[in-house]
Amino acid sequence: MTESWSSVQTGFLTGDKAKDTRNVAILLDTIAEVSRNHDLQQVMRSIVDKAIAVMSAERGLLLLRNDAGELELEVARDKQGNPLPPNVQHSKSVPKRVFETGEAVTLMDAAGGDAISLGQSILDLRLLSVMCTPLNTIEETIGVLYVDSKATNKGFTQSDLELFKTLGAQCAMALQNARLLQAFLDKQKMQQSLYIARDIQTGMLPKEGLQQGNFEMAGFNRACEETGGDYFDYIALPGSRVGLVIGDVSGHGIGAALFMTTARALLRAFAYKQSDPALVVGSVNDFLERDMPPGSFMSLFFGELDTNTGMFRYASAGHNPVLLHRKSAGAFEEFGKTGPALGVVPGVEYGTGGTAPLQSGDMLLLYTDGLPEAMNPDRELFGLERAKNLIVGLQERPAAEIVNQLVRAVVEYAKREVLEDDLTLMVVKAK
Predict the structure, then answer these.
(1) Please, are residues 370 and 423 in contact by the beta-carbon 8 Å criterion?
(2) What is the CATH number of domain 5-185?
(3) How far apart are CA 405 and CA 409, in angstroms?
(4) What is the 8-class DSSP label of residue 320?
(5) DSSP per residue over 348-368, as a string?
């Protein structure tokens, strides 16, 4: 059972004024040394060096608990301050016993019976003195501090052990503080990297709507995390054609964003070279299928609109149905899938769909599943019917205003600014 804090604090005092004064001075100097450092690696090296110096040992080791709950060697150094190799031989049983029991151990005579009970490796390494103490925080044991020596003139005493335990208790706090600070700094660095990635990703999306011929286009994208896997694009193609794209990579975060960026670059390249939407999508799939990790995929809708004639052709790789509202008929058409999602099946031949020319007042709605699957606090879906009703009610308004009203409706329905999924949509309107 681990000793109380008060006994660990004072147990190293012997009553010998000179020795106690020296021990207190050593302890305070060590605490100051390891506490003023903020770099985790430097703190660990300092702890080991001070432990060797305080105990007049030949070697010192710091072992910390890893994610599997087992001890892992972090630092090993000799009395000259030189690092020892990661595979350095040392007693395994002593640190394990101290870590599991929470009780410090000292071995003053390797020839005695205690050596056998503490492990054959002590005899094999010809160690004459061994000492090990747990590194205890308030909540848990995070590792052990270990020193040993082969010197015949150095035997660790009970007083040494008490001083070593006190040293270990103080070092444990300094080490835990350094680890927490390092974790905080790592998180801040990662957060900054995500902000940069978000800015880069956002910069790849259209900055504003597009007007070409009798058509106007507007879009919106908001990731539920710093980065996301949704995107939309309008691509000016040779002649009077415009490529209309919306896609959704499975998952969220930086991985999805990377695949989205790759898909965007591939699609733009193939759209300029090929005039058939099915061939464009198929070419993108051939590349993504090689690199997509198992279980990942991307849905994508690629449409090609001739802004002179109003003709519209498309290919859909497993994407949500795109809606076309015909003003003259007051009804909706749906453009469904013409093949599976990207990155799943190699060599897929996608189909090309099409429709009669878009006329004045007709509207296209492209979206990812963040629109219909947005949920309110009662976990009820926003659904497509609400989106359709909004479109019909706003059919005389500009495309950008329709997009803004749709986004506002989703946010008000969900009662939260940050949604559970990425939200991306595009409206194309024939003026």
Answers:
(1) yes
(2) 3.30.450.40
(3) 6
(4) P
(5) -----EEESPP-TT-EEEEE-
142-177 as b/e: b if 16+ CB within 10 A: bbbbbbbbeeeebebeebbbbbbbbbbbbbbbbbbb
3-state secondary structure of 308: coil
Structural fold of domain 204-430: Phosphatase 2c; domain 1 (3.60.40)
Nearest to 372 by CA among 342, 341, 334, 398: 334
Domain ranges of the chain: 5-185, 204-430
Residue carrying the six token digits 């030189």: 82
Q: Are 131 and 94 in contact (CB under 8 A)?
A: no
What string of pLDDT tens digits covers the 431 residues of the chain? 333 333 345 455 555 666 666 666 666 666 666 666 667 788 888 888 888 888 888 999 999 999 899 999 999 999 999 999 888 888 888 899 999 998 888 875 444 445 445 555 555 566 678 889 999 888 889 899 999 887 655 567 777 788 888 888 777 877 877 777 777 777 777 766 666 666 666 667 788 889 998 999 999 988 776 556 788 999 999 889 999 999 988 876 677 777 788 888 899 999 988 889 999 999 999 988 887 777 788 999 999 999 999 999 999 999 999 999 999 889 999 999 999 999 889 899 999 999 989 999 999 999 999 899 999 999 999 999 999 999 999 989 999 999 999 999 999 999 887 778 888 999 999 98
Torsion sign across C-alpha atoms 33, 39, 42, 48: positive
**Domain 5-185 shares a fold with domain 204-430:** no
CB 363 within 8 Å of CB 425: no
Distance CA 249, CA 228 (A): 8
Phi, psi of 124 (to 5 degrees): -65, -35
Residues, the chain: 431
Using an 8 Å Cβ cutoff, are 303 and 244 in contact? Answer: yes
Tokens matching residue 273: 């070279």
Catalogue the E-assigned strands of 116-228. Answer: 129-136, 141-149, 210-212, 215-222
Which residues neighbour 278 within 8 Å (Cβ) at sequence distance 6 or greater? 315, 338, 339, 349, 350, 351, 352
Q: 247, 280, 260, 261: which is closest to 367 by C-alpha?
A: 247
CA dist., res. 259 & res. 245, Å (int): 15
Nearest to 34 by CA among 2, 73, 75, 71: 75
Owner of token pair 């060697």: 73
